[in-house]
Amino acid sequence: MAIAPETRMGPVELSVADLERSLDYWQRTVGLRLLERENGTASLGTDTELVSLTEEPGAQPDLGHTGLFHVALLVPDRPSLARWLAHAAREGMELTGLSDHAVSEAIYMRDPDYHGIEIYADRPRALWEGEVGRLMTSLPIDVDDLLGELDDPAAEPFDGLPDGTGVGHVHLRVADIPAAVDFYSRVLGFDVMAQAGPAAAFLSAGGYHHHVGANTWESRGALPAPPGSATLRHATIVVPDATELDRVAGRVADAGQEPEPHGAGGSGGGGVLVRDPSQNALLLTAPT
């Protein structure tokens, strides 16, 4: 019943209060490129789309509800992470954390709408494969060691996040961990890789450390964000082909939820929208 091991995460779609302000932040600070813009929406990424923004004028930052905890942008290697950190230091950016998770090293921040962002690099898979539950932790990054990947951090050029950057995982605020684990594991077919009791869980396809994180640190028993909030519109789960898409969508339907066609061609094109028990929207899709 496991979801296909090639399953990965795709773009996230966020609502924002001021598209110009958000584009400035996601390009200048995060380092993404504008790929497309029209009618109050914009797509950003590197060699592929990673984030889609939809303007909702006056939308307020969301606190205390279910939704996005952070979207995690996975860079191709450790020098790329060091290059980004040197850029952040030179620009005097406000960061919310720098953590060594044993399986990865991660830098955290929030955009002007309070959407959480993680930029991270994986440690070699051979160091943690099959040991995620035992190894994954949160310790301070050795900043000097990380910047030691560069000849001269103060002079290292930064031309944005490199091609090959992807959405490595999406971490969600949920109302209840057992209900979230049941949905992502039993219904969608992700494997539970690590769990911190009733507070957090980390799930993946194909033995990765996690494609989906879920926690109740700010949202235990909470409802979705009210209208007028800057929030997660949907996260994307990319399965390898249409057959797998139909199989996973069918399991969602068997669990009592009707998947909603999204985009051109429904499950044969844009995919289908489903919701987890906390009403976080997920776009299930396959390459065309």
Kindly summarize this structure in a few lines.
The protein is an alpha+beta fold. 20% of the residues lie in helices and 35% in strands.
Class inferred from helices and paired strands: alpha+beta
Radius of gyration from CA coordinates: 18 Å
By DSSP (H or I, 4+ residues per run), the number of helices equals 6
Shape: globular
Strand content: 25-35%
The count of strands amounts to: 19
Task: State the share of residues found in helices, binned by percent.
Answer: 10-25%
Q: Which strand order does the major sheet show? A: 10-7-8-9-6-11-14-13-12
**First-last Cα distance:** 24 Å
Tell me, rounded to a whole number, the average pLDDT.
96
Annotation keywords:
single chain, about 290 residues, alpha+beta, nine-stranded mixed β-sheet, eight-stranded mixed β-sheet, 6 helices, 19 strands, about 35% strand
Q: How is this structure best described in words?
A:
The chain is built from 6 helices and 19 strands. A hairpin with a 3-residue loop joins strand 7 (97-100) and strand 8. Residues 265-269 have low confidence and may be disordered. It has helices at 19-30, 78-91, 132-135, 143-147, 177-187, 242-254; strands spanning 8-16, 33-38, 41-45, 49-55, 60-61, 67-74, 97-100, 104-110, 116-122, 139-140, 166-173, 191-196, 200-204, 212-215, 229-230, 232-238, 260-261, 272-275, 281-285. It has 288 residues and is an alpha+beta fold.
What are the SSEs and their pairings?
Layout: E1 8-16, H1 19-30, E2 33-38, E3 41-45, E4 49-55, E5 60-61, E6 67-74, H2 78-91, E7 97-100, E8 104-110, E9 116-122, H3 132-135, E10 139-140, H4 143-147, E11 166-173, H5 177-187, E12 191-196, E13 200-204, E14 212-215, E15 229-230, E16 232-238, H6 242-254, E17 260-261, E18 272-275, E19 281-285
Parallel strand pairs: 1-4, 5-15, 6-9, 11-14, 16-19
Antiparallel strand pairs: 1-16, 2-3, 3-4, 6-11, 7-8, 7-10, 8-9, 12-13, 13-14, 17-18, 18-19
